[in-house]
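Sample pair:
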Amino acid sequence: MARSPSYNRDAALDTALDLFWKKGYHATSLKDLEAALAMKPGSIYAAFTSKEALYLAALERYFTRNRAALQTLFSEADAPLKALADHLRATAQSRRPTAPSQACMLVKTILSATADDSALAQAAQGYMSEMSGVFAAAFDRARDLGALPREADTARLARRYQANLTALRIEAESGTDPQALADLAEDMARDIEALAQPA
């Protein structure tokens, strides 16, 4: 009879996600993972194959959670442009005090990846593209509801929105004054709201 694993995979992935998000792939050592997961090296490799595979699993977990939350937020909004604008404001105001990092894990992965980390960079870039698709869908919905002109380039708007969101998170990570961060987010949010056509 097969013996069930002595670890909780979901809990282990959550712990690894927080550690990788905080320290990054290269700065996280096997010793760090052993201590955080309370697992021996052999158990870690038996469960996740390699450090890279564990990172990729944690990165996927980060992405799927964020995508699901944003899809729900934007798809249920009566006014998608307002929802997009308010998300920028919330990003600056929350400062996510319990988060391992204020910066996006996908962006941190792309920026820190070396030539030997092509699998990590490609995965993160793919997830970023999918997130841009979530934003584009919100702009599509705004267009369908008449808040944007029919000729609006929603893919381009989504890329700009994603760039603004990334910039806000980097500013937060770098310790920008909370009021200055809120002001920056407000400017970005008003730009989104200004896209709306008169009813």
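The chain is about 70% helix and 0% strand.
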